[in-house]
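Reviewers of the previous submission asked for a worked example of the structure-prediction workflow described in the proposal, so we include one complete record here. The input consisted solely of the amino acid sequence. No template or homolog information was supplied to the procedure at any stage.
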Amino acid sequence: MARFETPPGQQMQADFTLVRRGRDRLLAFVATLGYSRSTFVRFMRREDFAAWHEGLLAAFEHFGGVPEQVLLDNAKTVVLERDVYGEGLHRWHPGMLDLTEAGGFQLRLCRPYRARTKGKVERFNGYLKGSFLVPLKASLKAGRLTLDLDTANREVLRWLEEVADRRVHATTGVEPYRRLPEDRAHLQPLPRGLDAERVLTERRPRTALPIESLQHPLSVYQSLLEVAA
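From that input alone, the workflow returned the following structure tokens.
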């Protein structure tokens, strides 16, 4: 089956994936640019509209601009009613409509029960868990620590830059960071309306992990994966 490809700057796919259940629930907001496959991740506790809003703003900040389209699944916190005004005419959360107007992008939905329509971000969800979360949890366990929100968000930014964006992508055959400048060149500028609500993607907790191996994520993640396998 032929894969659906988009030109630079056209589309970003966004999704939430569950990392941990229970009282200490943890989810990951994941956004992938369709052309370069460069990805942004923000760990959160919730999947409500405020979380979607924060995630999208943070992704735009991370990539340095706004794509023409954002492709989403049928999340009830974002899409209140599907096709309520006719086929393809949905009732969106009012805050999402405000965000699209401020950001100048279009919203697109996957067809019901066709999550693979946004397969670029879906495939990354599995990669995130296997290549980042499994090794990170193993390293934390070795230091008698548990995974918390601040640690996950600090370490994932480094992993995205040094590992995920530097892997040769299985579909494009190119490392995402090499294609990212083309994506960025076609992104719309961040509108002024988003500046006042800016999500601080550069926030770093001051406490660093007391584990030496995490200073070299590419090698440690790979070695831990080999041990786990």
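Residues 36 and 180 are 5 Å apart (CA to CA). We consider this example representative of the routine output the project will generate in years two and three.
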